[in-house]
Design goal:
alpha+beta; ACT-like_dom_sf; 4-stranded antiparallel β-sheet; VC0802-like; 135 residues; 3-stranded antiparallel β-sheet; ACT domain protein; 2 domains; ACT_dom; globular
Length: 135
């Protein structure tokens, strides 16, 4: 199983569209998590074939985040990102990139790219959008 994270404008039928695209390509959905923040849907899907899944979803015009990124949810307040990056620093994990996917007055969703993926997912378990124990 491989996770794919899609960022799209929230609309009626969005999940139906994405699940249809995957079903048409005979790609199984093993797990799914959806968060809607500030009119953006963040959909993290565990797929039987993540590489092909990413390709068909992108071909349909949807934005797919880097499959190596860790997608986290945290409070939208001063110091929260510092708290998270300090946790990673203490564990020897180097943050290579941060992409704030969406946020509102209370919550932020970000995609992190790191050098030690497995260690980072263990350290940030409480912030993960979806359980990434498959890594």
């Amino acid at each position: 199983m491989r996770n794919v994270t899609i960022v799209a404008d929230d609309k009626v039928g969005l999940l139906a569209d994405i699940s249809y695209i995957l079903a048409k390509s005979k790609i199984n959905i093993d797990s799914i998590s959806v968060e809607v923040i500030s009119a953006k849907a963040i959909i993290t899907i565990g797929l039987s074939d993540g590489v092909r899944g990413k390709q068909v979803i992108e071909a349909a015009g949807y934005r797919v985040e880097n499959p190596e990124a860790i997608v986290i949810k945290f409070q939208e307040k001063a110091g929260e990102l510092n708290k998270i990056t300090t946790m990673l620093k203490k564990e020897g994990v180097d943050v290579k990139g941060v992409n704030i996917l969406t946020k509102d007055n209370t919550t932020s969703i970000a995609a992190l790219t790191v050098d030690k993926h497995k260690r980072a997912t263990a350290v940030l378990k409480q912030y993960l959008i979806i359980n990434e124990s498959e890594y």
